[in-house]
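Take a careful look at the protein record below. Let me know whether the structure tokens fit the sequence:
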Amino acid sequence: MAGTITCGSLLQKLQLVWDEVGESEEDRDKVLYQLDQECLDVYKRKVDQATNSRDLLIQALDDSKIELARLLSALGEKAIPRTPEKTTGTIKQQLAAIAPTLEQLTKQKNERKREFVNVQSQIDQICGEIAGTIEVGEQVAIPQVNEDDLTLERLEDFRSQLQELEKEKSNRLEKVLEYVSMVHDLCTVLGMDFHSTVTEVHPSLDDSIGEESKSISNDTLSKLDKMVATLNEDKKLRLSKLQELAGQLYDLWDLMDAPKEERRMFDHVTCNRSASVDDVTAPGSLALDLIEQAEVEVQRLDQLKYSKMKEIAFKKQTELEDIYAGAHIVIDTAAAHEKILALIEAGNIEPSELIADMDSQIAKAKEEALSRKDILDKVERWMSACEEESWLEDYNRDDNRYNSSRGAHLNLKRAEKARILVNKIPALVETLVAKTRAWEENRGLAFMYDGVPLLAMLDEYVMLRQEREEEKKRMREQKRYIEQQLNTDHEGPFGSRVSPNRPASSKKAIAPKLNGSISNGTPPNRRLSISGQQNGHGVRSGGKDNKKDTAKTASPVNNNTAAAAPAPPPVAAKEDAASHISGTDPVPSTP
């Protein structure tokens, strides 16, 4: 077209200018090259713009497809009417085809979301009422709905959960009403105000508030459960107290022979004397004023019971005597009884003062017994050790103690323990003496044991034990002397000697009991008051008394005379065993 400017015309015009100027070929080539590069740059920019526009359309198409897939996944729809099946054509054509379907699915999604919000709101409402975070009827905040999962299956799950929560709410309401009924019944029996009691748990539990508005929270149920438990415990304690008071009333009535008319006045108290907790349902039957009324009557009768002072006083005196007897303190019971009887008959002392005085005596007696307990415990240990010492003597005298008879191993174990115990007697006696003297210095009086000074008993025991040790020492010397004489007189023709451990049976029969003079030969003026529990110094059981009496007749009367005159050879094992009474020397290995 004439007058149209093109690249060729411009290039021709440029060639004419160069010719006129006389431009060199080299400069011309550079200019032409620059023109080619500038044209390329322009084309390149246009191509980039077109590519970017295409990419944006493709991205929009991809986003639409992703949104379509997301909506289909969220709604759980596998096939939607008018779902675009066209996947070919231009990008703009594909976008136009998918747009209506997206609009339809978006509208369906919003409707489904509203259904989820409605169901979840009800679920949150009931959960809040159960947890106690919201009150009954209070509106909850709009819940957050997961828009990526709006399927009908999930909606049905929420609806099922809502049905379960509504059922639980109904059960909780039924349980709350049951608790409220129990509180009402207990308050009626205990004489308490039901309204003020139940509203302490929650204000909505009042009878004036409808059932649908009552609190069903965990805290309310827990408090109701604790309240019912507390009221039941109060009921149990009050019934126990009332039954105790009823028992005291019966005891006092029986003590004072109260008439039936007086007893009938408290039938409302005594009627539940043997009733169980569940049996007591009458209104006000365990009210506090009823219990106070019974307590006042018991106090009144308790004051009247002092007319029975003689019986009560002698009962207190018996208790006092039992305490002194347990502490081994001797008192004049006959004089005490006469004194009490004289005071009651003379009427010079108030009954309450007499009872208070006897209670004071009992308290002092208990304190006295407590102060003597440590010493008495050691006395018992001492007596027990002496008993074992006495048994050990009898055991060491038994020629058959090492035979394999039945029970021999038990006696051997007992003997070992007895020797250990006997070895502790001196230290025990020393400790006992020290404690007794400290007690006497602190109290300023002698420590009496069943009427005998304990220190005198201990001193006598120590003296007798020393005498017995000296006696055993003399007997061992006598025994060695006899053995030497036997070894000299019974030498064989070849210089051999008869063993002292094999004496004739007739010589065994006349063997002396070495400690007979110590065990049973104690002079009367040195008798210990230890109730037959000392080591051979007191009376023991009947069988052993007979054995000791028999042995006593065979014991030497004068030890010095026995030592001067030779006696028949004793059995070596028997005599060795007799020297182990104190448990200080080793036991012979063979009989």
About this structure: The first helix runs from residue 7 to 21.
